[in-house]
Amino acid sequence: MTDWIEWHGGEQPVADDVRVDLLLRDGEARVNMHASLCRWTHVKPTDVFHDYDITAYRITQPSELERLRAENARLQEALQAIADDMTETATGKRAFARAALGGQDD
């Protein structure tokens, strides 16, 4: 979960499938809302819905795309570690074979 981000109205700041907690102008909180279902713009102070303007939000669940990007980065790191281990193992085996053959080339 992220820290609270102050909001002064405008276009939706996150992807539709992101879940957010909201603080409203009237002091109420809404939790775990789909961003696409929220009214991100602010209305005039005389409007009946003024008290329901979002004044702060925080991300409670990132978008599926962000989750997949993070998973991809984690998998790339794991694959690189495996490749590094395989290279190190192969290098060690070649050195062992050379030593076993009395330092002769392949």
Walkthrough of the structure:
- The structure is a single chain.
- This protein has 106 residues and is α+β, with helices and mostly antiparallel strands.
- The chain has 2 domains: 5-62, no CATH class; 64-101.
- The chain has one helix at residues 64-100; strands at residues 5-6, 19-24, 29-34, 54-61.
- The chain has a 4-stranded antiparallel beta sheet with strand order 1-4-2-3, with no helix packed on it.
- It is rod-shaped.
- The mean pLDDT is 89.
Short description:
With 106 residues, the protein is of the alpha+beta class. It has one helix at residues 64-100; strands at residues 5-6, 19-24, 29-34, 54-61.
How are the SSEs placed, and which strands pair?
Blueprint: E1 5-6, E2 19-24, E3 29-34, E4 54-61, H1 64-100
Antiparallel strand pairs: 1-4, 2-3, 2-4
Beta-strand percent range:
15-25%
Helix content: 25-40%
* Shape annotation: rod-shaped
Task: Spell the H/E element sequence.
Answer: EEEEH
Unreliable sequence segments: none
Total strands: 4
Main β-sheet: number of strands, strand sense, barrel status?
Answer: 4 strands, antiparallel
Q: Residue-averaged pLDDT, rounded?
A: 89
Q: Enumerate how many helices there are, as a single number.
A: 1
Instruction: Give the CA-CA distance, first to last residue.
Output: 57 Å
Number of domains: 2
Overall radius of gyration: 27 Å
Strands ordered across the widest β-sheet: 1-4-2-3
Observed structural traits:
single chain, 106 residues, alpha+beta, 2 domains, four-stranded antiparallel beta sheet, 1 helix
